[in-house]
TrEMBL record:
Keywords on record: Membrane, Transmembrane, Transmembrane helix, Viral release from host cell
Residue ranges of domain Phage tail tape measure protein in the record: 87-285
Name recorded for this polypeptide: Phage tail tape measure protein
Transmembrane segments: 338-359, 379-404, 450-469
Length: 605
């Protein structure tokens, strides 16, 4: 390559690489700026989200309480009653470890079921229901429905006593019945739901109804107990006519259950047989009534005692005692933390709600603008998409740079690995060369090698002597030392002639002058053959007999392309010669002795 071309290539490389370096640097700067921007956006966004979540988490108790209170407020409850309700709910949750929001939600159901609650009555009803639910292992919604049912059944009694005092007595009496008869609040609610106001309409008190239903639940469910009691009440009028007995007083109110059972015992005894059971079923009209009578007649004294005990219950102290015994202190701690946050942040929640409401109003205004001016919404949408798209472009650029860096690292690793492999191959080559030299040195250091070499040289000398025997004999026949050598050679030839198939004749009939004449004649005819001694003829015949593949016609000639290549390379290039001064060729990995020998052979060829 000329110096001008080399300088031109260098200049081109400089002109190309410098702009590329600038472009690469600019891309890296852009990618770095994009990554930094995305990092800042992510951290900033995460910070905002975390701050919002922290504020929301802190305000959540107050927000939840505000939501539930708002639902109750929708029923027309005054603000004063709502404040009392919220305070009662927090106190209840801290005392029994129950949910304050569930307490307020229960007040919504109570207010819906019981009309006319005012002042503190809503709080009293809700607290009594919550305490009874905790005491009887029932959920708040079930007991809330139960209180609504009981109020519907004993509305007159509640009005006479006062709703707040009445509901506390219902709570205490129900808790005592659950404890006495080993039932649950759910079962008692089912029992009163089944019986309805049938017993109350004929003058049966709450304590007696609870005692009867509780006693029946020893062998049946609450709903089944209510169904049997309802069947009995429905057949009383017919039964007293059929049996000729009186089960009502002068005002038409039903006599106490114990008195009715005593009358039946006086007629049938302490037990009722099959015929008597059929008579009672006919009188009351149903088997359910007969079944209830049989169960209650088995222990009339116990029934009377239960009715008296329930009648003595005042307030809900029993329910509070039972609920306190089943309170979980860890639940109290959790409820206390909720109550603290609800109370603290509830004080500032109205101001925060005002700010949030203003923000929502602002969003509403923007929404109205977009509806009134559609082009505004379109512009805002395009701006948002453009911002997001720019972020996507920067992200794609960062991705491409990352892929390029990864590929560069992989290429560097690959080239490093190949370099290591080549170094290992070079080491192996050097090791093999050294081993070859060591083998050659060891071979020539072996005496047998010298013996074989000496024999070879001796054979070569004998062959040469045989080949030039006539000339030697003509030239040195008169010298004493040649006589000795001629004797030795002739003796050696005689030894060789002893080998089967070997017949060497030193006394050739042709003289050198004759051989020269034959050679000239053969050359004229184009069939020149080199002079051949008798020994060579014998050797060639022997070799031909022993190794036919070594005959001239069977020997492999080198390819013509190789011969042409060698011939062409050896021709002198006389034309188009250019000089560039001194040229230095530096072989990167050197040349081995074998390669040098091969080079010499090719040059000779």
């Amino acid at each position: 390559m000329s110096m001008e071309k080399l300088l031109m290539q260098v200049a081109l490389i400089d002109q190309v690489t410098k702009p590329l370096q600038g472009i690469t640097k600019q891309m890296q700067t852009t990618a770095e700026a994009g990554r930094q921007g995305m990092t800042n956006m992510a951290s900033g966004g995460a910070g905002l989200v975390a701050t919002g979540l922290a504020i929301q988490n802190a305000l959540m108790p107050a927000i939840e309480m505000d939501r539930k209170v708002g639902e109750v407020k929708s029923l027309g409850v005054t603000d004063e009653a709502l404040k009392q309700l919220q305070a009662t709910a927090l106190d209840f949750s801290v005392e029994y470890g129950k949910s304050a929001t569930d307490f307020v939600n229960a007040s919504y159901d109570i207010q819906s079921a019981i009309a006319g609650l005012d002042g503190n009555e809503l709080s009293q009803f809700t607290k009594a229901s919550g305490v009874l639910a905790a005491a009887t292992k029932a959920d708040t919604s079930t007991i809330t429905n139960y209180m609504g049912t009981m109020y519907g059944i004993f509305k007159n009694q509640a009005t006479e006593m006062g709703k707040g005092e009445w509901v506390e007595q219902v709570s205490g009496m129900t808790a005592s019945a659950v404890q006495m008869f080993k039932t649950t609040g759910n079962e008692m609610s089912s029992a009163f739901t089944s019986i309805g106001a049938e017993a109350t309409s004929v003058g049966v008190g709450m304590n007696e109804q609870m005692a009867i239903l509780g006693t029946l639940q020893a062998t049946m469910s609450g709903s089944e107990a209510g169904t049997k009691y309802r069947s009995f009440l429905g057949g009383v009028a017919k039964a007293q006519s059929e049996l000729g007995m009186s089960f009502t007083d002068a005002q038409g109110q039903l006599l106490p259950m114990v008195n009715i059972l005593e009358q039946l015992k006086g007629r049938y005894g302490d037990t009722i047989d099959v015929a008597e059971s059929a008579e009672l079923a006919k009188a009351f009209g149903t088997k359910e009534a007969t079944g209830m009578i049989k169960l209650l007649m088995a222990d009339t004294d116990g029934l009377a005692q239960s009715i008296e005990s329930l009648g003595q219950v005042q307030g809900m102290s029993k329910a509070e005692e039972m609920a306190g015994a089943m309170t979980d202190q860890w639940e109290r701690l959790q409820a206390s933390w909720f109550a603290v946050r609800a109370a603290v942040f509830g004080a500032i929640l109205p101001s925060i709600n005002a700010v949030v409401g203003s923000m929502a109003d602002g969003m509403l205004v923007i929404t109205g603008w977009t509806q009134e001016f559609p082009i505004l919404g379109e512009i805002l949408g395009y701006v948002a998409i453009a911002g997001i798209s720019l972020g996507g472009v920067v992200a794609a650029l960062s991705l491409a740079m990352g892929i390029g860096q990864m590929m560069s690292a992989g290429w560097a690793l690959t080239m490093g690995t190949l370099n290591g492999v080549f170094k290992m191959l070079r080491i192996n080559t050097l090791a093999m060369t050294a081993a070859t030299w060591l083998f050659n040195a060891a071979l020539w250091a072996n005496p047998m090698t010298w013996i074989v070499a000496g024999i070879g040289l001796l054979i070569a000398g004998v062959a040469a002597a045989i080949y030039w025997w006539d000339d030697l004999k003509a030239s040195f026949a008169d010298t004493n030392w040649f006589s000795v050598i001629a004797w030795a050679i002739e003796g050696l030839v005689d030894l060789l002639n002893m080998i089967p198939g070997v017949d060497i004749d030193l006394n050739a009939s042709d003289t050198p002058e004759m051989n020269v004449a034959k050679q000239a004649e053969t050359a004229k005819q184009g069939e020149f053959t080199p002079p051949e001694s008798t020994f060579a003829k014998v050797a060639n015949e022997e070799l031909t007999q022993v190794s036919p593949y070594k005959q001239p016609q069977n020997m492999t000639a080198p390819p013509k392309a190789m011969i042409q290549n060698l011939t062409t390379n050896n021709k002198a290039q006389a034309s188009n010669v250019r000089q560039y001064g001194d040229v230095y060729i530096t072989a990167p990995n050197g040349i081995t002795p074998d390669q040098l020998a091969e080079w010499d052979e090719l040059n000779v060829g």
